[in-house]
Amino acid sequence: MTSQVLCATDGSDHAERAVTYAVQFAKVTGAKLTFLASNIIMTGGMAPSVPLWDDAEVKRMLDAAIAVAKGAGLTDTRAVAVSGRDPATAIVRYAEEHGIDHIVTGTGGRSRISRLMVGSVASDVAAKAHCSVTIAR
Fold this sequence. Notes:
Number of strands: 6
CATH class: Alpha Beta
Number of helices: 5
Radius of gyration: 14 Å
C-alpha cells in the first residue's frame, strides 16, 4: 500500500503533468503527498557553484504545485527544496531518507539545454529509486 508519494517538479509542462497525476494518485490512495524541487547546482572550472534557479523561482514552482493539490481538495501536502549537482540523486536520497514509497516525475526538464547538461532525470530516478516510480507523460 502506498502511504507517501513524492512528486518532483521544476515548473515545466512535463512537471505540471506529473503534479496533476500525483495529486490524483494521492487522492485515490489516501497517501500523503510531498512536492520536491531539486535545484541544480551549476559548476564550471574556476567559476563559483551557483544554483540554476533563485529562491523566488523555487518557491513559485512549489507554490504552484501546492495550489493544484489544494484545488483538488488535498490538504495534507508538503513542499521541500533540495539542491545538488545531480537532481535524480537528490530526489532518490530524499525519498529514501523520508520513507517515500512512490515517486512521480515528468519526462523532461525546463529547457533543452538543461536536459542536455543534466541528462534524463526521470530515467535516472527510475534506475536508482528504491521504490515504485511513475513517469507521467
